[in-house]
């Protein structure tokens, strides 16, 4: 990987060779910077947010499980395909309970941790510290994966991606220090790195393609010693994927559906790409897509036709980094393809976690495109000295990257308001229900209305019965294992011949006499004994809560 600088003159970016180790002082300063930025940007939400979606489901699984003790709770984790995540999530509830603030503070720390790990990874690969710092800073506020900042369940993804990045740093450090031969120290270092990487796969399998492609990284570092190092990564990773991800996963797509999923990922990723450069959802993705493609083409062509021309060299030096960033994006989406029909790419709220690994490549691409554009603009400016041209490149790149950082931060603040609204409405639902129904009878099911299901698309308040978030929240807050609870949303008919049920939750059917209907609009509680009473009560409760929160709600 070449020295990635925007000018020929010696600069902080060019002062270190690609094989030089990451300096502790750099890592220390980056750590302080990203911790400070994370708390400035996300700290307020940590004390005003709450649990969302799977946070409540995980709490339910932790507090109510068939086997006793900590490991019984681990066995009861909702996603057995991720054994390391099961231990980690169980540990968070064991130490912090259902107190929102500690969980959200941990999410802020993990936000900083990921940017620190990304900075360390890029510097280890030889990227100039200014560019590495810029890419890691953009990642901190990248809006297309911000659910991992606001959502305690999603924040674990930052931990596992960061673990993979530090595993790569350790592996590269060991290769450079010990050489290609499998000496005792070399093997010990590689085993430590591989263990960390495989633990990351067992925590969140999205990093698996990067781990399985680690031979590319080792070959880039130097010839020799590639095979045995790669086998240390690949064999245990494949075992994890076979015995856990494949066995307990939700069922990967095959055949025609897999081809459809590839198309879904391609479409969604181009939309995310557009939003990366112009964070406006109403914009068509194609103008940005073709503009970025044009910049990449110019940079690659300039590298091919440089011929000693300093202006072309300044543009062409970004050709290979741009292509590598595109490759990183593809690796980031590779594990999404088998499940793309169930996990949309271009979606707000909790679903934007699908972009969490590709976000690394997207932030790199944003930085490299800014640098290439700066070099192109500076190259066409006539009658200025080369020194002035160098400075112009730096200024333009700095303005473009700084503008993106500010735009991302604005989007983060807007999203923060939606997440906060979700927490506020949830608190109203819980408090209101506890006031109106202080002691539910055994085996009761509480149906609530008219609060909305979502504060915005894909950001649940208590988002429909199938999510089981309201069920978990009520079980935990009432400390009743046999209690169930579901929201009644617009368009639902809940009165059956013998039971009360919401259409989107197969576990909701409740015999008449055990169903409790709570109408927050009138502060009334109903317990219908038959279908006729249920129909009369629900007519009085209409309109039910909207699916999505609106300004006139």
Tell me the number of strands: 8
What is the helical fraction, as a range of percent?
55-70%
Q: State which percent range the strand residues make up.
A: under 5%
User: Taking all residues together, what is the mean pLDDT?
Assistant: 91
What sort of overall outline do the alpha carbons produce when their principal axes are compared?
Answer: globular
Description:
This protein is mainly alpha-helical and 553 residues long. The protein is 61% helix and 5% strand. The protein contains 20 helices and 8 strands. It has helices spanning 24-46, 54-63, 69-75, 83-96, 100-124, 129-140, 147-150, 152-178, 184-203, 208-212, 214-221, 226-248, 255-277, 285-304, 310-316, 319-334, 358-380, 386-436, 469-478, 531-541, and strands spanning 445-449, 454-456, 459-460, 484-487, 499-500, 510-511, 515-519, 524-526. The strands form 3 sheets. Strands 4-1-7-8 form a 4-stranded mixed β-sheet. The longest helix has 51 residues, at 386-436. The chain starts with 23 loop residues before the first helix and ends in a 12-residue tail after the last helix. Residues 1-19 have low confidence and may be disordered.
């Amino acid at each position: 990987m070449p020295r990635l600088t925007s000018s020929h003159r010696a600069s902080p970016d060019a002062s270190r060779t690609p094989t030089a180790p990451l300096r502790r002082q750099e890592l220390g300063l980056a750590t302080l910077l990203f911790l400070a930025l994370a708390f400035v940007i996300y700290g307020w939400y940590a004390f005003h947010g709450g649990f969302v979606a799977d946070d409540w489901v995980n709490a339910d699984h932790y507090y109510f499980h068939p086997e006793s003790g900590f490991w019984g709770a681990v066995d009861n984790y909702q996603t057995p395909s991720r054994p390391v995540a099961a231990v980690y999530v169980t540990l968070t509830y064991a130490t912090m309970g259902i107190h929102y603030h500690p969980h959200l503070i941990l999410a802020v720390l993990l936000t900083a941790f990921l940017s620190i790990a990304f900075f360390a990874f890029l510097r280890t690969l030889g990227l100039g510290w200014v560019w590495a710092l810029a890419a890691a800073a953009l990642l901190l506020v990248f809006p297309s994966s911000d659910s991992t900042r606001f959502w305690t369940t999603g924040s674990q993804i930052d931990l596992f991606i960061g673990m993979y990045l530090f595993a790569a740093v350790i592996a590269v450090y060991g290769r450079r220090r010990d050489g290609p031969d499998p000496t005792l120290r070399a093997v010990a270092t590689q085993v430590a790195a591989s263990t960390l990487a495989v633990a990351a796969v067992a925590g969140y399998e999205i990093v698996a393609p990067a781990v399985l492609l680690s031979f590319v990284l080792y070959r880039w570092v130097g010839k020799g010693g590639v095979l045995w190092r790669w086998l240390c990564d690949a064999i245990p990773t494949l075992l994890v994927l076979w015995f856990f991800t494949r066995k307990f996963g939700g069922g990967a797509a095959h055949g025609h559906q897999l081809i459809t999923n590839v198309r879904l990922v391609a479409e969604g990723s181009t939309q995310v790409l557009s939003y990366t450069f112009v964070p406006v959802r109403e914009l068509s993705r194609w103008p940005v897509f073709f503009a970025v493609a044009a910049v990449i083409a110019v940079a690659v062509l300039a590298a091919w036709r440089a011929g000693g021309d300093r202006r072309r060299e300044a543009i062409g030096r970004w050709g290979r980094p741009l292509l590598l960033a595109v490759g990183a994006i593809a690796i980031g989406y590779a594990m999404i393809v088998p499940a793309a029909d169930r996990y949309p790419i271009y979606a707000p709220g909790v679903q934007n976690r699908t972009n969490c690994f590709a976000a690394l490549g997207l932030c790199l691409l944003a930085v490299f495109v800014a640098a290439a554009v700066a070099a192109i603009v500076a190259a066409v400016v006539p009658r200025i000295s080369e020194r002035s041209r160098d400075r112009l490149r730096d200024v333009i790149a700095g303005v473009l990257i700084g503008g993106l950082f500010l735009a991302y931060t604005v989007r983060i603040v807007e999203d923060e308001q939606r997440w906060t609204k979700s927490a506020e409405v949830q608190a109203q639902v819980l408090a209101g229900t506890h006031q109106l129904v202080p002691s539910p009878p055994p085996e009761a099911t509480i149906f609530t209305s008219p609060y909305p299901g979502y504060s915005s698309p894909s950001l649940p308040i208590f988002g429909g019965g199938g999510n089981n978030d309201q069920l978990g929240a009520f079980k935990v807050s009432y400390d009743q294992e046999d209690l169930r609870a579901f929201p009644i949303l617009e368009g639902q008919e809940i009165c059956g011949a013998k039971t009360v049920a919401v259409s989107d939750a197969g576990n909701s059917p409740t015999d008449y006499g055990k169903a409790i209907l709570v109408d927050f609009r009138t502060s009334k509680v109903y317990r219908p004994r038959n279908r006729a009473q249920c129909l009369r009560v629900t007519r009085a409760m209409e309109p039910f809560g909207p699916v999505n929160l609106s300004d006139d709600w």
